[in-house]
């Protein structure tokens, strides 16, 4: 499903990507448009077919909602292509990454796989809240390297409206706030080893984030793009800490 969503976005953004990301397979000409359409169609069908075959309602709902929002985000149809609106684009990313993934995957494992009653656990609430912060940051940050192309093609991202530097530091402040809250929540755990892992883990990640942020050259598109990929590494690193929430 992720291949479908990302691929559809590249199909819809070929002209923009020729400016912002000329190395991508469609923008560079490595893949033809016909090949791109075949890939995303095949992966969408395969994803939904797997979800239907497995028979888990939470998993299938996660796939269907992700499919719908991913399509609405990118496709050039009346009332769609929500990425043209900074708020709608951020809402799509937050809904999938922070809410649908956390809740539906948890429900799939808890009810379908293990056959247990659904309860709102502390780790689930923490993961959903924390990833809301992170998803907002990703939604904002993804447009920072794309200022030139977005401005030319009329994509009203927050970076186009507010400027690269301002959006960059808003993202850093949001992430530091999220790490601060996670540290406080972790410190409230009644289990010593869990408390130590949560506090030290988030303190280390926050320190690494601040170090890299203070070193970045915001005039370099390559540096900004590399930092964006670094933010994704922090995103997935959090999944190593979530199990320590007790």
UniProtKB/TrEMBL annotation:
CDD domains: PT_UbiA_HPT1. GO terms for molecular function: prenyltransferase activity. It is found in: Membrane. The chain crosses the membrane at residues 31-53, 59-75, 87-108, 120-141, 167-186, 192-211, 223-242. The keyword Transmembrane helix applies. Its main location: membrane. GO terms for cellular component: membrane. The keyword Acyltransferase does not apply. Keywords: Membrane, Transferase, Transmembrane, Transmembrane helix. Belongs to the UbiA prenyltransferase family. This is Homogentisate phytyltransferase. The lineage of its organism: Eukaryota, Viridiplantae, Streptophyta, Embryophyta, Tracheophyta.
């Amino acid at each position: 499903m992720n291949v479908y969503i990302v691929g559809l976005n590249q199909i819809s953004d070929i002209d923009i990507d020729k400016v912002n990301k000329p190395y991508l397979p469609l923008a560079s000409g490595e893949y033809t448009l016909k090949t791109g359409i075949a890939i995303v169609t095949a992966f969408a069908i395969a994803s939904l077919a797997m979800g239907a075959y497995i028979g888990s309602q939470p998993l299938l709902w996660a796939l269907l909602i992700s499919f719908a929002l991913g399509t609405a985000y990118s496709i050039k149809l009346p009332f769609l292509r929500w990425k043209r609106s900074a708020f709608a684009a951020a809402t799509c990313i937050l809904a999938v990454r922070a809410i649908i993934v956390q809740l539906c995957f948890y429900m799939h494992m808890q009810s379908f796989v293990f056959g247990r009653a659904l309860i709102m656990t502390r780790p689930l609430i923490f993961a959903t809240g924390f990833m809301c912060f992170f998803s907002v940051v990703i939604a904002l940050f993804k447009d920072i390297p794309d200022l030139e192309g977005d401005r030319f093609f009329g994509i009203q991202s927050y970076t186009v409206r507010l400027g690269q530097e301002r959006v960059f530091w808003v993202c850093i402040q949001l992430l530091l706030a999220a790490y601060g809250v996670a540290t406080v929540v972790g410190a409230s755990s009644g289990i010593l080893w869990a408390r130590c892992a949560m506090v030290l883990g988030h303190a280390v990640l926050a320190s690494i984030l601040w170090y890299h942020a203070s070193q970045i050259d915001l005039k370099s598109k390559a540096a900004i793009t590399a930092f964006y990929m670094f933010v994704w590494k922090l995103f997935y690193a959090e999944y190593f800490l979530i199990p320590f929430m007790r």
